Amino acid sequence: MHGDMREELLTIGQFARLARLSVKQLRHYDELGLLCPARVDEVTGYRYYRAGQARQALSIGLLRSLDVPLPVVAQVLSGTAGALAGVRAGLEAELERRRRALATLERVMADGLPRARVRIVHEPPRPVVVAAEQASGPGDIARATSAAVARLLASHEVGEGGPQLIGLFPVELSEPLTVEVALVTSGVTSGVTSGVTAGVTAGVTAGVAAGPGERILPGGSFAAATHVGPYDQIDLTAHALLAWCAERGVPAAGPIREVYVSDPARTPPGELVTHLMVALEQE
Q1: 163-197 pLDDT, tens per residue?
Q2: Which terminus of the chain has a smaller tally of CB atoms within 10 A, N or C?
Q3: Rounded distance, CA 191 to CA 189, Å?
Q4: Is residue 102 included in any domain, yes or no?
Q5: How many Å apart are CA 24 and CA 65, to the nearest integer?
């Protein structure tokens, strides 16, 4: 008798209540081939299900409650090995992004909206080698920047003084966006980094030619501010720098430059020094 009961067909409404899903969801899953009815009336088009299908329906509901995309749900139900690994990695990345956002919010709560001392500096043109990396959006910038840095350092020798790296980021963040990191190939020390102006670095002029694989990073006048703290909170100083430009009616000519002064392998995150620059004019 139990076997006959299990074979009894349920209307879509009855099965929806049993499976804790909506009728709309069941119809959608049928259209996707994810959970097909046991029978469809040829005349009325009504869908009927068996009670034995409830386990699969409940499994779909469980996976969807964990933010598992429907294509991955199908893979899990079919027994594909490792189907959930990508979802787990995505959730971990989102969790880390949320943690960074929380840390930045706590800094704003403690210190108020960001303000930074902005100064005008003059930079000479610099021969650089540039690595570009595509970021899916603002939340992917950190990964893209790290990938570009790793590629540069793996393919170019660096002198005893360590690499001079400059991040180049668009003023207007979009999805996707291109992140660039420049490795300075001359021995000239940045005027921002050293606290001096172009007068000390007059040996590098706009007429310097780039070598093979190099390009010239333009010089000119820049609004600059210094960020001290973790890289994932640089946006606070960038906000203050762009606000300074906006208050004075100065268009922010991108890209925003981040001059990395500290070695993150030897410097605690809270003590990392980064100079941010926005071009005011190009020479």
Answers
A1: 899 999 998 888 889 999 999 987 444 444 433 22
A2: N
A3: 6
A4: no
A5: 16
60: domain CATH number is 1.10.1660.10
Average pLDDT over residues 229-255: 89
Position 1 pLDDT exceeds 50:
no
Q: Confirm whether 112 is domain-assigned.
A: no
The range of the structural domain enclosing residue 166 comes to 119-282
Find how far residue 197's CA is from the centre of its chain: 34
261, containing H or E segment: none
Look at 4 and 226; give whichever has higher pLDDT.
Answer: 226
Extract the tokens encoding 275.
């100079």
Question: Per residue in 5-52, pLDDT tens?
Answer: 446 899 999 999 999 999 999 999 999 999 999 999 999 999 999 999
Could you tell me if 162 and 260 lie in one domain?
A: yes
**What is the tally of structural domains in the chain?**
2
Distances (CA, A) of 231 to 141, 145, 174, 214, 241: 11, 11, 20, 27, 16
Dihedral (CA of 6, 8, 12, 17) sign: negative
